[in-house]
Amino acid sequence: MLRLGIVGLPNVGKSTLFNALTLSKAAPAENYPFCTVDPNVGVVEVPDPRLDRLFEVVRPKKKVPAVVEFVDIAGLVQGASQGEGLGNQFLSHIREVDAIVHVVRAFDDPDVLHVTGSVDPVRDHDIITAELALADLTVVERRLERARKTARAGDKAAAAEVATLERVMDELNAGRGAREAGEDEDTIGYLRRLGLLTSKPILYAANVGENDLAAGGGERVRQLRDAVRAHHEEALVVPFSARIEEELTDLDPGERREYLDSVGVEEPGLDRLIHAGYRLLGLETFFTVGENEVRAWTIPRGSTAFEAAGEIHTDFQRGFIRAETIAVEEFIAAGSYRVARERGLMRSEGRDYAVKDGDVLLFRFNV
What we know:
Elements: E1 2-7, H1 14-21, E2 40-45, H2 49-58, E3 62-64, E4 67-72, H3 88-94, E5 99-106, H4 121-152, H5 156-173, H6 185-193, E6 202-208, H7 210-213, H8 219-231, E7 236-240, H9 242-248, H10 253-262, H11 269-281, E8 283-289, E9 293-300, H12 305-312, H13 314-318, E10 320-327, H14 328-334, H15 337-342, E11 347-349, E12 359-365
Parallel strand pairs: 1-4, 1-5, 3-9, 5-6, 6-7
Antiparallel strand pairs: 2-4, 8-9, 10-11, 10-12
Helix pairs in contact: 1-9, 2-14, 4-5
């Protein structure tokens, strides 16, 4: 299951976002720092109209969407890496997630306190980034000291590790993240195994005023996007309004559509945030269809049919024979496997077939 950690300064809208994501009031959202003391955890369905349409066509007993786990982590403050505020207790929670959702405040409201006294999303980004980098520096310095001792004894693997860690030190000291030092997948994997916070993929959720959302968030969001892309050119910035998302949680689907139209927005910010998380981590979806259920499955982009089979059950993978494959839109148009076969739409693929986003897969196996 994909696990995303929501971080940011106090009072930027993290807990309000979490409550809207999980359709709950699980996370307290009072107007003072450190309102969230322990991380709140919620499991959220991945919105996918394709799964809804499959369910309508097939009419099985149940529909099983893909899910994402969100962790609402207490607000960090400047000096957190040195124990300020709630300090390293909460930095440790960030180490356990797959990716980071950094919430920054880009709205004005005199009734909502800002821990620094003014609204400046670029400054807030810099504060959180610096704290994560400082926490990583402590880890890297300890590891580098040990690796250098081993390398001096002639260990070639340790010498290669020293070179990698020195690159990481350079990136962290320059205000960038450890992920910028990852020259290949093996190196990136090594850095993540070290538990480095800045090796994790990160996307930015800009909490904007209701009137700014239809225009993409306004000037503050543009400045934030320029700032984060100066460090990481592929960084994603998703504008949303926590207040609008909170309003949506109390509406039925028809009312939600009307409300979104009234504020000039095509899609809820939370849906855009989840989809951005999929893009950030290079994930895609395939579907299985049966009499009992239709289900969405999450796999890394480029996964093979053999790997996708293992997501369902190890027996599917161990006894893999072939995967019968059809694009979801073609299946919906056909309405069933029988009609799809009659129309010649089903393809038989081997274990090395690269699964495409939206494939409907029927696995043939023998154990």
